[in-house]
Specification:
single chain, Helix Hairpins, 3 helices, 61% helix, globular, MazG-like_dom, AF0060_NTP-PPase_MazG-like
């Protein structure tokens, strides 16, 4: 997908982590764990989980951003596993994903 196609993109580059031997299964489980931590931060700090933790808005949003980046890092790690262990062509998958978004009207 070429950036000149008039889409708004948020480009974040995350590294491949060293010293790990992740499997598809272990990475999927870690992704769910990190997503749970994000949900917990949102629920707890917004009073949606039955308990209220008093923090100022800036700290709450900062914690959410930290947890979201943990989710993104694990998702990127899972992409490395798919490429390296399963010969998945992520460029091709990204193009298919963009086409799907277009077909649903989410982007033009």
């Amino acid at each position: 997908m070429m950036p000149s196609e008039n889409h708004d993109y948020k480009v974040i580059s995350l590294p491949k982590l060293n010293g790990l031997t992740p499997t598809l299964e272990s990475t999927a489980l870690k992704l769910m764990e990190e997503a749970g931590e994000l949900a917990q931060a949102i629920g707890k700090f917004r009073g949606k989980s039955g308990e209220t933790v008093w923090m100022d808005e800036e700290k709450v949003v900062d914690k959410m951003a930290q947890e979201l980046l943990d989710v993104a890092q694990v998702a990127v790690s899972m992409m490395f596993v798919l490429e390296e262990n399963y010969d998945i062509n992520l460029k091709e998958k990204l193009e298919q994903h963009i086409a799907k978004l277009k077909s649903k009207g989410y982007i033009k």
